[in-house]
Amino acid sequence: MFDTLSDRLTSVLTNLRGKGRLSEADIDATAREIRIALLEADVALPVVRGFIKGVKERAKGSEVSQALNPAQQVVKIVNEELVTILGGETRRLELAKTPPTVIMLAGLQGAGKTTLAGKLAKWLSGQGHTPMLVACDLQRPNAVNQLQVVGERAGVPVFAPEPGNGVGDPVQVSRDSIEEAKRAQHDIVIVDTAGRLGVDEEMMKQAADIRDAVKPDEILFVLDAMIGQDAVTTAEAFRDGVGFSGVVLTKLDGDARGGAALSVREVTGQPIMFASSGEKLEDFDVFHPDRMGNRILG
Ligand code: GDP
């Protein structure tokens, strides 16, 4: 996903090698190149500004002048600033003191929510949890069925309205699912919600109603990293319309520029918690800002 950005940053920083000392002009020129690389990768402008400011201040300050090898020191600074915009520390799931822990998934249609529901469930099962999936996307005719397929692949049960019971009320389904989880002793409930192709009020209201009905311990905003600059506005719309406690980046296996997704932490203030990088249930991991930072710097 971040190959172009990674190549660009690596080549900018490689140009510094072999310089015994770095002048202010060297640092300014490098910062300019980094700025262009980030903007071309679609990283949001305010995030780029903060990033460049941090790099410049630190590179011109004592950190570089005292360093034995200024080029390496600049690489270190850029790496640390990258890790900072990606959230710094890894943020773990918050589990409820009294089960079930309720995790609600929100995001646009096609973002990868249903797939993620299966991935999360499988991952949690592997850690000894007993998750249950809940089908609250009753808008799309095939969505319940799709979640059932995913549940089967992940080996976890799916709570859904009985077939033939009409469209069903997703808020009621979500409420009932909590009772069912308690009865059947599932310690984690993962609620899949409906998305639209674009942000709309009705979708936001339904997600907010489900949120109020199940009082989630975590609301994960699922973001397709391939949607480019729309990532930031979509994230802001979900933050304002539903609110979320963490972000999941999906489709990191794609070859789009992806920088907008790198902005989502800074723009929304919420951490990126998981990363999805393929259609298979195994293509999933906890998001580690430091590892991603290292990967981008090659
Ligand atoms: P939903 O509408 O948000 O529930 O999205 P889905 O889970 O149905 O995913 C939409 C499409 O994206 C499906 O074809 C998935 O197989 C695919 N998909 C989901 N996550 C990933 C991912 O991480 N990488 C790739 N390449 N495809 C994904």
UniProtKB/TrEMBL annotation:
Q: Where does GTP bind?
A: 107-114, 192-196, 250-253
- What GO MF terms are annotated? 7S RNA binding; GTP binding; GTPase activity
Reactions this protein catalyses: GTP + H2O = GDP + phosphate + H(+)
What is the main EC category here? hydrolase
ATP-binding among keywords: no
Q: Which GO terms describe its biological process?
A: SRP-dependent cotranslational protein targeting to membrane
Record note on quaternary structure = Part of the signal recognition particle protein translocation system, which is composed of SRP and FtsY.
Give the domain note: Composed of three domains: the N-terminal N domain, which is responsible for interactions with the ribosome, the central G domain, which binds GTP, and the C-terminal M domain, which binds the RNA and the signal sequence of the RNC.
Protein role = Involved in targeting and insertion of nascent membrane proteins into the cytoplasmic membrane. Binds to the hydrophobic signal sequence of the ribosome-nascent chain (RNC) as it emerges from the ribosomes. The SRP-RNC complex is then targeted to the cytoplasmic membrane where it interacts with the SRP receptor FtsY.
**Protein name, entry field:** Signal recognition particle protein
Write the lineage as a comma-separated list. Answer: Bacteria, Bacillati, Actinomycetota, Actinomycetes, Pseudonocardiales
Q: Which gene encodes it?
A: ffh
- Counting on the full-length protein, the chain here runs from 1 to 298 of 520
